[in-house]
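Page 42, continued from yesterday. The earlier attempt failed because a stray header line got pasted into the input along with the sequence. Redoing it now with the clean sequence only.
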Amino acid sequence: MMDYKHMLTGYLDKNGKEICEGHMIKCHIKIWVDAEEDWRQFDLILTCCHVDSIGSWVFRCDKPFTAAYIWEEIKDGNPKIIGKDGLRFCPFCGGEAVIRHGIISDDNIYVECVECNSCSGIFHEEGEAITAWNMRFEG
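This time it went through. Structure tokens are written below.
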């Protein structure tokens, strides 16, 4: 089922799924490394975030040494959707994950799969819960 609150990009991942704004994709991409004066291959996690001034979708990278890419630079890297809105899909069932607050109090934050109800641990900071959830991912 498509989530229409996220704008469609018109691009498909390697499995034929439509890539939307907010989707996280994993791809294998060639990057020029100045220090080595050569091209190197990297597996990157990119987030589809916005349309630039000339109408191209911009994908932000999870690595500090890279900034952003447009679709033409990543389409041949076998892009695969692996999450949405900063949360990777469930490592157990592939379902969408959401941030929840308040098992014991509103200060308790955790990530839960909406399909199989698996959860991260309980944290006091949203960023900690997201990091813990995303580190469990094996896909």
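Notes: The chain is about 10% helix and 40% strand.
Reminder to self: strip header lines before submitting.
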